[in-house]
Amino acid sequence: MTRVKAVGxxxxxxxxxxxxxxxxxxxxxxxxxxxxxxxxxxxPVTAVGGALVDRTPAAVKDxxxxxxxxxxxxxxxxxxxxxxxxxAAAAGVLALRRRAAGAAVVCGFAAVGAVAALSRPxxxxxxxxxxxxxxxxxxxVLYLLTGALTRxxxxxxxxxxxxxxxxxxxxxxRGFGRIAAAALAGSAAAGYAGRRLTAHxxxxxxxxxxxxxxxxxxxxxxxxxxxxxxGVPGVSAFLTPVADFYRVDTALVVPRIDADGWRLDIHxxxxxxxxxxxxxxxxxxxxxxxxxxxxxxxxxxGGPYAGNARWLGVRLADLLRxxxxxxPSRGGPADQLVARSVDGMTLGTPVETVMDGRExxxxxxxxxxxxxxxxxFPVRMVVPGLYGYVSACKWLRELRLTTFDAYDAYWVRxxxxxxxxxxxxxxxxxxxxxxxxxxxxxxxxxxxxxxxxGIARVEVRVDGGAWQEARLGAEDGTDTxxxxxxxxxxxxxxxxxxxxxxxxxxxxxxxxxxxxxxxxATGWHAVEVRVRPA
Length: 534
Description:
Elements: H1 2-38, H2 44-55, H3 58-68, H4 72-97, H5 99-119, H6 129-150, H7 173-201, H8 203-210, E1 263-268, E2 275-278, H9 279-283, E3 288-295, E4 306-315, H10 316-322, E5 336-341, E6 346-350, H11 351-354, E7 361-366, E8 369-370, E9 380-382, E10 396-402, E11 425-430, E12 440-449, E13 455-462, E14 468-469, E15 471-472, E16 482-490, E17 493-503, E18 525-531
Parallel strand pairs: 1-10
Antiparallel strand pairs: 1-2, 3-4, 4-7, 5-6, 5-10, 7-8, 7-9, 11-12, 12-16, 13-14, 13-17, 15-16, 17-18
Helix pairs in contact: 1-4, 1-6, 1-7, 2-4, 2-5, 4-5, 5-6, 6-7
């Protein structure tokens, strides 16, 4: 009898855990439906994930980018869902003994979601509602399912068992199954409705982008010079296709902004004529087209987080001068330009850099089309020569003039440097690591960049030997990367290839390896290959 009782208790706990997961799914589905009515960022999974991103040390974020690349957000959201499932299962098991204990666990998780949503930038009290509504739904479903697991069996208690006043309780599988099926069906319907509402809410943004016709540039970029592409298979395209352009940011839900309602405010220290522009007014100004290579500070030596595109936009320095701004070198009181996106992200850019004559843009176009949503539609910043975290604010809505002493932007508060000029880097694209080319003439090729300084020379060496100068592709300007190639007379065996670049200031790329934190990685990219006999 004891063994039979133990088996029954284990089975009941399994059903309790399953009931908790079903209740959690019901709560999550209703919360996402409510978030569609408030704003997508207020959903508990997104809010908790965003709060975790905000509180994760820079070194851990850097590790996540290295391990998971652009899938880091998906991994984070799956992790939050896994934790939610475990908590829900535990709540279901606890509720078998004491419903109040199970309800307390559900309430606690709902409270975490609500607090996380309220902690997000641009949050209002309404952002707490989806988590609270989902918590209430989860508690109700858990109450019903627990009732089916603990209701009286109808069998009288044994005489002298001490349970004369309490009827025996057991597992009502049919009742549990009916309630669980109804909860799952309702949850699926709520989830579908939430997705439809979210899609409907973003339909205006999608239509506004589809209907946007960008004016021709007053100053078009010259054609990419012949010879910019060295013609070696496997080398990164000189102009990166939009679909292949890297994306590194903290937005777990890509903002979808209706261009008709977008507005930019420029104000702060030293602004004598504050500006407030809508997209039509911005596009009425002269547009400039310029090729710029962007690079993420999280890019390791030889990493993929660099891309080259043709950007179309308004010169940022012209707008600042129109607002009365003077750079610090001319007596201006502000040395930092803080850009704020619609999701609350802040980036701090040196005012002197923006106004020193380089083509710093408020970009509206990328490779001949309006910006994609994932790359900042309708307007983003592009400042040649600076890492993206201090210059490339996407989904821009505000520019505020202040000082570095007075304000630390988002990433600076998380151990990254306040000023971050891009370091000279080079990368071997072909041959790939562990490749097995045949002995003979093997092209070693890749890209090198030193934005706003330009690349003067690239050199390659084999097995620590003498440096050999590579042939450079034609230069499109100092703000873009350059392709390069060196014909290697490869011999059979294992070999290590290394590359280094020299920029136009004469500075040689350092060989000493350093981490990406706090202001970008250094070191020579190396590739090991095994050359087969000819």
